[in-house]
Amino acid sequence: MLRIDLHRNTAFILTAAAALGLLFPAPARGLEPLLIPALFLMMAFSLAGIDLDLPPMRGAVAGFLANYLFLSGLILSIAPAVLEAEALVLGFVVMAAVPPAVAVIPLTRLLAGDVRLALYSEALSYIASIVLMPSIIYIFARDAGDGAGVGLGETAKIVLLLILLPILASRYVGRLGIDPAHPINAGLFAVTYIVVGQNSGAISGEAAGVLFIAIARTFVSGAAVYAAAAFAGVEAPQRIALTLFASFKNLGLAAAVALLLFGPRAGVPAAVCIFTETAFYILLSALAGRRKGREASKDGARTRRSRLGT
To answer: For residues 14-35, b (16+ Cβ closer than 10 Å) or e, as one string?
Structure first.
């Protein structure tokens, strides 16, 4: 009998939290003080299994560039061109500044991608984010109007609380013997519910422009990198890893930082992108399933031919 552990299913957790935020938004505002503790817990356990020693540059740079150069550059290019509301643009600035989703590594494994490439690129991205994240936010948000401008000190404090300290904590929480899926998904659920709940009205009212960017920075970006890698002759496992780095950002971190620095409305982009990233992963899962099916059919055909030849 097939057993599905919903509490370990990240796609289900994100979808359920977002749906509850839309349907029952009232408690979300009172839960805002839980944002930093929930994200700290999630980040610490997410990073516990990642070797954050300086990785081999050759194996790490491709995924790092796919995320921080291509995906972040795309977000920073199209958000100001499509949106007029400054708070929403600032939400996308924060999204461009944060590192890739920690879930890229387990997702790469589930999709039969190159886990070593994902691990190296993830490690390099998080090491670089210590400098890149406050720098990008400061450069693109320092002159924001209506008092929304942010200083380098504020963003540095966020990096300290939500990246540096969790990295240090991650070196110890892995020894506790706790299944990391539970605290990670609990943190994802809390952050997603709070952000979506606080923006339930704004999500429906401003969905068109934000959704356009969300689709472009997820589906179009991921498909473009996959096609370019295929054209360059990159093997399928590496293409899968690069595609994930070109389409997945740490949305829990983006949502929390945007909300803390610029207010609830700035959390709308991350809330909407939760849906597009979940949908894109489901699409990749279906494509990976078809690829495995074709490979199994080819193996079966080769086996039959081999038997006939003996």
So the answer is: bbebbebbbeebeebeeebeeb
